[in-house]
Write a structure and sequence with these properties.
- The complex is a heterodimer.
- Chain A starts with 9 loop residues before the first strand and ends with a helix.
- The model of chain A has no long low-confidence stretch (mean pLDDT 91).
- Chain A is of the alpha/beta class.
- A five-stranded parallel sheet of chain A has the order 2-1-3-4-5, with helices on both faces.
- Chain A is built from five helices and five strands, in the order E-H-E-H-E-H-E-H-E-H.
- Chain B has helices at residues 3-8, 12-24, 26-36, 56-69, 122-131, 151-154, 169-174, 176-180, 194-206, 228-243, 247-279, 281-290, 296-305; strands at residues 44-50, 74-80, 89-91, 104-110, 136-143, 157-162, 183-186, 217-219.
- A seven-stranded parallel sheet of chain B has the order 4-2-5-1-6-7-8, sandwiched between helices.
- The longest helix of chain B has 33 residues, at 247-279.
- Strand 2 of chain A pairs parallel with strand 3 (89-91) of chain B, so a sheet runs across the interface.
């Protein structure tokens, strides 16, 4: 029986918008799984609504958004706003992909816990996810 | 206001939270389940099992959509295996499901080492969804082989999904999962070999023992939505026939006994482990077993009699 404090971290990995390159997202999903986490992989072409609904139903601790299309400035704020609407501000949001530095700063200001650019080591992502996950 | 009462009111976040608790916190689980139990039992639970890659998730998606469009409140429990090495899991069944705007609550659960095709928390998850008002629950097992037959105990109707040309007759005879199906679906029916597979399955089922229900063999192409209505019809027929089957009471008693046995074993074990860890005897005995100074059976009796 797992102690509530040592239960597996649940992470949702999704790709919002039209971006069709999912190799990075899959690599991260597998790395998190190998680190003992339960990863709900929702795949491509997700709307912010669908992502937040899935995050709610799956009671995840962390949401990882993979965005390589440049649409992060529209999609991420939508996700953050929906989380707020649902009273889910305790769910951490991580963003990975092609994000220019100025945009990354803005994303962090609006509540994103971390922005990971291309070439980030999976170990770093795993470590960060583990440390930032809310633990009910 | 408790979590239990929130669930009964249809609060989805409360349901989601409770699902997490029943997986992880036995004391909290007991409290919630005790509160909502009188409101359980109201769903028709449809179990779907079959080898990896036959299209279970796609079929679940189509069935969930069909039931939701027909006005039902649908729950989906999708089970995936936990890694035996890391304890983590890739829960990817949701990928196949696009049920936006429909009243479908989907929860992915990892097996966490439990064998049989489902997770230990599955029956509690079903109860929570029923308490939340879901009246159709689709239960998708891990990609199963021949021995993942847990689903039979938890589902009212078990659907076994195959694809054309999977194995030969002899294989089918030996396979445990072919014994537990109430409905058989040959999915990806646009592939060659469909008619033959249907024929072989029907022959095999006719050779089986007399039952009040002869499992139908249906064909489907879930990806295109074909065959879904027929499956729903067959589920409904099965439900009606089973309502009048005297063996149902026997099954209910068996299931109740299984549930009691499992709950008791969990409680006894956690109590015994907690007490003996506190006194140090647990760790000592573990050391003895690993050093081959004492066997595990003797150690367990020692612990129990202590």
């Amino acid at each position: 029986m797992t102690d509530v404090r040592t239960r597996p971290i649940r992470v949702l990995i999704g790709k919002p918008g039209l971006d069709g390159h999912d190799r990075g997202a899959k690599v991260v999903a597998r790395a998190l799984r190998d680190a003992g986490m339960e990863v709900i992989y929702t795949g491509l072409h997700q709307t912010p609504d669908a992502i937040v609904e899935a995050a709610l139903q799956e009671d995840v601790d962390v949401i990882g958004l993979s965005i390589l299309s440049g649409a992060h400035n529209t999609l991420v704020p939508k996700v953050i706003a929906l989380l707020r609407e649902q009273g889910m501000e305790d769910v951490r949001v991580l963003v990975g992909g092609i994000i220019p530095d100025e945009d990354a700063d803005e994303l962090r200001q609006m509540g994103v816990a971390a922005v990971f650019g291309p070439g980030t080591e999976t170990e770093e992502i795993v470590r960060f996810t583990r440390s930032c996950a809310r633990r009910a | 206001m408790s979590l239990g009462s929130d669930i009964l009111q249809g609060d989805q976040r409360a349901l989601a939270r409770a699902l997490t608790l029943v997986e992880n916190d036995p004391d909290a689980a007991e409290e919630i389940i005790r509160e909502v139990y009188p409101h359980t039992g109201g769903a028709h639970v449809i179990g779907l099992t079959g080898a990896p890659g036959v299209g279970k998730s796609t079929l679940v998606d189509r069935l969930a959509g069909y039931y939701a469009s027909a006005g039902h409140s649908v729950g989906v429990i999708a089970v995936d295996p936990s890694s035996p090495f890391s304890g983590g899991a890739l829960l990817g069944d949701r990928v196949r499901m696009d049920l936006r705007g429909k009243d479908v609550f989907i929860r992915s659960i990892a097996t966490r080492g439990h064998l049989g095709g489902l997770a230990r928390a599955t029956p509690l998850a079903i109860q929570l969804m029923e308490a939340a008002g879901r009246d159709v629950i689709l239960l998708e097992t891990v990609g199963a082989g021949q021995s993942e037959v847990d689903v039979m105990g938890h589902a009212d109707t078990t659907v076994v999904v195959v694809v054309p040309g999977l194995g030969d007759d002899v294989q089918a005879f030996k396979a445990g999962i072919l014994e537990i199906g109430d409905i058989f679906v040959v999915n990806k029916a646009d592939r060659p070999g469909t008619d033959q597979t249907i024929r072989e399955l029907r022959q095999m089922l006719h050779l089986g023992p007399e039952r009040p229900w002869l499992p139908p063999v249906l064909s489907a192409t879930a990806a295109d939505g074909k065959g879904v209505a027929e499956i729903v019809e067959a589920v409904e027929e099965h439900r009606k026939v089973m309502q009048h089957d005297p063996l149902q009471r026997e099954h209910r008693l068996q299931e109740a006994e299984r549930a009691l046995r499992e709950a008791l074993s969990d409680l006894l074990l956690s109590r015994a482990e907690a007490e003996s860890r506190q006194s140090g005897s647990w760790q000592a005995l573990v050391g003895e077993i690993a050093a081959r100074r004492r066997d595990a059976l003797t150690a367990a009796r020692q612990l129990l009699d202590a």
